Amino acid sequence: MDAVPIWAQILGLVVLLLISGFFSISETAMMALSRYRIRHMASAGNRRATLVLSLLEQTERLLGVILLGNNLVNTATSALAATFAIHYFGENEYALAIASTAVAFAIIIFAELTPKVIGASYPERIALLIAPVLRLLTIVMNPLVWLTNLVVRRLLRLLRVPEKPAENAISAEELRTIVLEGGNFIPQKHKSILLNLFGLEQISVEDVMTPRAQIEALNLAVPVEEIVRELTTCYHNKLPVYEGEINRIVGILHVRKAMALFNRGDELTVEDFRALLTPPYFIPEDTGVFTQLQYFQENHERLGIIVDEYGEVQGLVTLEDIIEEMIGEFTTSMPGAARADSFCWNGNGECMLEGATSLREINKHLGLDLPLDGPKTLNGLLLEALRDIPEANVALKMKGCVVETIQLQNQAIKVVKLIRI
Q1: DSSP calls for 229-296
Q2: How many CB atoms lie within 10 A of CB 295?
Q3: Cα gap 226→220, rounded to integer Å
Q4: DSSP code of 334?
Q5: What angle is formed at CA 235 by the lines to CA 232 and CA 250, rounded to 5 degrees?
Q6: Does the predicted model carry a pTM greater than 0.70?
Q7: How far apart, in whole angstroms, are the C-alpha atoms of residue 126 and residue 27?
Q8: Is there a contact between 42 and 143 (Cβ–Cβ < 8 Å)?
Q9: What's the sign of the alpha-carbon dihedral 293, 298, 301, 303?
Q10: In contact, 141 and 65? CB cutoff 8 Å
Q11: What are the chain's domains?
C-alpha cells in the first residue's frame, strides 16, 4: 500500500462505488421499464430497443450478470476500505468499525439507493443507454454466470420451486387501469372511447335500447290516411311495422322507399306498404352489447327488436345506439328525448329529468352511483323502491341525491327532480 498514493486509493474506492452504482441502476431500469413500450420502439426500428428486448428474453442470465457483478464490486470495495484502515490506523478495532460503517453508508447512498431511484424514474432512457454494455458483460461473464445459475437451478429443484412460473395474461380490468393511468400519453377523448369499449362486455342491449313506450312504429291496422300522415312526420329512416298492437311486428319499413309511393298518383293501400317490408330482426333482452355489435356486422343489420322470454317487445336497439355507447352521442336526438346537455345541475344543485331517463346516462353525466342491477330507468327505480305507484309527490333519498317525483301520468312517473346532497 506504501507504493500506492493515497489519492489513487481514494480514486479506486470512488471507481468501485461508481461501478456498483452502474449495476444497481441497470437492475432497476431493466426491471422497471415497460416491455410494451420497448416492443413498440423495437417494431419501429430502434436497434437499442431490440437489444434491450433480447436481454430481457434472457432474464436469468441478465440478473446473474448484474447481481454477480454488483456483489463482487461491493465485496472489493469493503476489502479495499478495510485494507486502507489497517494500513493507516493499524489493527484498531474502532478504526475498522468506523471504516466498515463509512463504506456501508457510502454503498447504500451512492451505489444502491440513489442509482435505483434514478433507474426507476427514467427506466427506458437508461435501459437504452446501458444495453450495449450489459450485452458485452453477458458475453464476458458468461462462464461464471452459467456456473452460478447451475447451482441456483439445482437448489430450486431441491426446494420444488418452478424455475419459470407461468406468465399471467393481462385481464380487462388491468387494461382498464393502464388506460386510466395513461395520463397525458392518451388524449382524453381516446381514453373515454377505450373505457367505453371495456364497459361493453358488462352491459346488455337492454341498457342501451329505446324502451317500448318510446318506440316510433307504424300500425297497419289504421286507415291509409293516418299511415301517410305518420310517414310524412316521421323522424327515423326505418320504422317497425305492426298490426293492431306492438307485439305483432310484421316487418321493418324503409321510410324513403315508402315516400316514393306518394309520387305514383294512384290511390295507396295497406298492401302497397306491406310489399315494402323487410323481415324483422329479433334480439333476446339479455344479449350483451358487444355480442350484438358482432351480430349486426355478421347479419348486415342495423336495427333489432328486443323481446323478453315470452316474446313480448321490450324495446328497440340500433347500430347507432351501440356506436354512441362507445364514442358518445353524435346523432341528432329525437324530439323530447333527454340530451347530454340536459344532464346538469343548476345553481341550487337540482336537475329535472323525465322518468324514462336511463339510469346509466344519469350516472355517467351527473356523477351519481344509482344501482344498475335492477330497473333501467328512473321511473322503474322509484317504483321498485316505493313498491307502489305514488298518488302524489314523494321524495326518496338515494345514493348521493334526493329523488323527488314532480309529475305523474298514466300510472308512471313522468317528471323527476334530482337534488344533489
Answers
A1: HHHHT--SSEEEEESSSTT-EEEEEEHHHHHHGGGS-SPP-HHHHHTT-B---EEETT-BHHHHHHHH
A2: 16
A3: 10
A4: P
A5: 80
A6: no
A7: 10
A8: no
A9: negative
A10: yes
A11: 6-158 (no CATH), 169-202 (no CATH), 203-327 (3.10.580.10), 340-420 (3.30.465.10)
Which residue blocks in 107-169 are alpha helix, DSSP H? 114-121, 123-140, 142-158
> Per-residue pLDDT for the chain (421 aa), expressed as one digit of tens each?
556 677 787 888 889 999 999 999 999 999 888 888 898 899 888 999 999 999 988 888 898 899 999 999 998 988 888 887 777 776 777 777 888 888 889 889 998 999 999 999 999 999 999 999 999 999 999 888 888 888 888 888 888 877 665 555 667 777 777 777 766 667 777 777 787 787 777 888 988 888 888 889 999 999 988 988 888 888 888 999 999 899 999 999 999 888 888 877 678 888 989 999 999 999 998 899 988 999 999 988 999 999 998 889 999 999 988 888 888 766 555 554 555 456 788 888 888 888 888 888 888 888 888 888 888 888 888 888 888 888 778 888 887 788 888 888 877 888 889 888 8
> And the C-alpha cell for 368?
351519481
d(CA 226, CA 262): 14
Of 418, 277, 397, 229, nearest in space to 342 by CA? 418
